[in-house]
Structures are given as structure tokens and as C-alpha cells.
């Protein structure tokens, strides 16, 4: 019997390159038989409950920011299960673990040396569902008196790449960037990245999770996890220039034990009800 194509969706591109997820989709499609289709949702870093493609039966595998995972898993009938593996990228701070950081960047020629000096300055973030770009900054601001009035203005840029562009073009003073996005940007555009300077880093946070539609057969879920675990052994030429090392084991507790993830999920849920 001909298998239906596996439907993969990512909410992390273009900041994490689309070709990374295309390699994953093609690998899973070959291993499972039937091929795969990739959908990129660049407008937000995770699905909303009201148009959840897993609930609607429109997606089988997904990559999203951790707050959205927690939000979907706390529904009465969760639409997704966590895949027990997640990517490890080459960042010595992660120490080979599926973890990442939020790096606060300013222009290299800026007079700003610390986060506290950003009071009254302008700030860019990718979107309000992002842990590294937005909620990590909110957590940092909670330690500062009158945190809600800290920045003179904030700009929702739409992606980490656009936040970087706004900083380098003097449109905003600073932004918090997914550390893996920054690593790839430095490798691909060293001249551009040289115009940026990191003044503070937050984390580590558990890496953005891979999920699977809850209603898929258990055997298929197990196979998908095994095939992802083997991805680094495949001849994936499309990964050239991406600091991907391997998929490593994760559990749902890894996400629930991160106060930043849980608080971000709570705030995203509150926003969804407004």
C-alpha cells in the first residue's frame, strides 16, 4: 500500500534555515517511504490553538518554540506528543546537549556595554511566542524595577534575522537572538556579524522541540524518532554550513523543569484568551 507523504511543518524558519528542515523532511520521507512535504510558517514561532494544524489533521511532524509545545500539551486532548529527540548544535556552551541560549546583541560601535544601559533605548524581538527573542527578555526585565517602562519602544520584527538587520541598520539599539541563529549568521555572513557585539547571554534553555501528531500510530512515532536519531549518519549534503551535530534524547520534563519555558507558555496562553 502506498504511504501518504509525511507532512512536516516548521515555525523556526527562516531564522533557522529552511534547508535544515527540508533535509529532515526528505530524510524522514525516504525512511518511511511515500516522501514528505514541508510547510514553513514564518509569521510565528508556534501554532495557535484555534488554527492548530495537528488538531486539524494537516501536519504530522513539527518544529516550534518550547512555549507552544507546553500550550498544546496542556489542552484537554493534546494534539501533539513530544518526539523524544531534539537537535544539538555546535555551541561549546551547550556542551553537547540539546540546549541553546539567548544572546543580546548591539552594534559593535555602540556605547552600550550592559543590559542595564538599554533603559530608554529601542528593542527588537522576533515574535511574542518566542522564548529566546521575547520571553527571555521579559524574564530579565522582571529583575529590574519598573521593567514595563524599561525600553522607549519595542518592535516586532517577524524573525531573528530581521531583528539582526534592524540592529545593524541603526533602526533599533538591541535585540535578543537565538544563539544558533547567531552562530549561523556569523558563519554565513562574517562581515555582517562583525558589526554586532554580544553584551549578555541568557540560558541555557531546552532546544526548540520536535513534535508529532498525537493521533499518528505509535509505531510511526517510534520510527520517526529513530530516523531522526540517525540523521547525522546520513549523507545529508544540504546540512553544509549548518552547525548541526545530531539529535539527542529529550523528555517533556526537560521543558517543564525550565521556569522560563513554563512562564512563557502561561503568558502565551493568557494572550490567546484576549
Account of the 3D structure:
The longest helix is centred in the first third of the chain and has 15 residues, at 18-32. The chain has 2 domains: 6-91 and 207-273, D-Maltodextrin-Binding Protein, domain 2; 99-205, 3-Layer(aba) Sandwich (D-Maltodextrin-Binding Protein, domain 2), CATH 3.40.190. 42% of the residues are buried. The chain has helices spanning 18-32, 66-73, 131-141, 160-168, 179-188, 190-193, 218-229, 252-256, 259-273, and strands at 6-10, 36-40, 61-63, 80-82, 85-89, 99-107, 122-125, 153-156, 174-178, 196-206, 210-213, 244-249. It is an alpha/beta fold and 274 residues long.
Question: Count of DSSP helices?
Answer: 9
What fraction, in percent, of the residue positions are helical?
Answer: 25-40%
Q: Could you say how many structural domains there are in total? A: 2
**Terminal-residue CA separation:** 46 Å
